[in-house]
Amino acid sequence: MPLARRNTWLVLGWGLVLAVATLSLTPKPLSPDISQIDKVGHFLAYAALMGWWSQLDTRHCRLALIFVLMGLALEIAQSFTATRDADVFDMAANCFGTAVGWFATWLKPGWLRGIDNQLAA
Predict the structure, then answer these.
(1) 2 in a domain, yes or no?
(2) Cys bridge to 97: 43, 63, 77, 103, which one at CB 3.0-4.6 A?
(3) Is residue 24 within 8 Å of 74, Cβ to Cβ?
């Protein structure tokens, strides 16, 4: 996909990856005091990752696999920290978010290109 600011979009995408990894491994991430609200955060994070990166790379199966494995790896990494625990429901939320991000891209495949075109004008 030809994008005028492809490098900018890539940097922002890697920033999303870094933010998800950081929030997954911080000792006590900011979160409202609502039971199981972290599942919503996991879902939204992975939907955003898949939705963003699938605008930049057409190999959607590969991206989905990468994000599912990333979510699994981060959950396993949490089990090695003193302040976090691995949770199979967090992993399910990661997978569901990845699937919804993929589906959203299928529904609206060129949204990032539209933004790029408006910025280039």
Answers:
(1) no
(2) 43
(3) yes
